[in-house]
Each structure stands twice: as structure tokens, then as C-alpha cells.
Amino acid sequence: MAARESSDKYVRVLLTVCMTCQTEIVGDKSDLSKVTRDQLRCKITYCSVVNPGGWAPTSALRMVYKREYPRFLKRFTGYVIEQCKNKPIQW
Questions:
Q1: What is the predicted pLDDT for the residue at 7?
Q2: Alpha carbons 11 and 23: distance in angstroms, whole number
Q3: What is the model's pTM?
Q4: Distance separating alpha carbons of residues 32 and 55, to the nearest angstrom
Q5: For the chain, which residues make up each domain, given as ranges?
Q6: What is the chain's percent helix, strand, coil content, to nearest 5?
Q7: Range with the lowest mean pLDDT among 6-15, 22-31, 64-73?
Q8: 20 - beta bridge partners?
Q9: pLDDT computed for residue 8 by the predictor
Q10: The pLDDT of residue 83
């Protein structure tokens, strides 16, 4: 089935995004009040499904994914670090 012509300048897509961030403590976990930010790490799981509705070929989407997903995760990680670095750990 061919994609129909768009009468406006926007392309509509269906997008589903799932993101899970899991905090892990490296080292001694017995006394949480003594844990420092140096002992924390975060595991990020990111998944998305994009359906362009036939407006873009699969090969073009793959090219965008390979470039944009790592860029997004790097920027997101930097943002979180910047927001949390001088604040107390919230359990």
C-alpha cells in the first residue's frame, strides 16, 4: 500500500519509548548512610519502537537510530550527573 500525500509539512509517527534506570551500589551496602556518589552507578535500559506509517524507508530510520540514540543517552546521562552531583543521595 502506498503512502498517501501529506497536505501539511509535518510527518506523523507512532512512537513507543520505554526507559528503565536502575541504581546499583558498588561496595559495602550494609550502612546506606555512609554510601557516597562514587559508590553509585546506574544501569540504563532504553527501548523504542517507531512506526513512521510508511512515510520513511526502514533504511533511513536505521541510520537515524544509530546516530541519535547514543547521542540522546549521552546527553541524558550528562544532564542527570549535572543535576545530582552536589546533592545528597535520596533513598
A1: 63
A2: 37
A3: 0.63
A4: 51
A5: 14-26+33-85
A6: 35, 25, 35
A7: 6-15
A8: 45
A9: 65
A10: 93
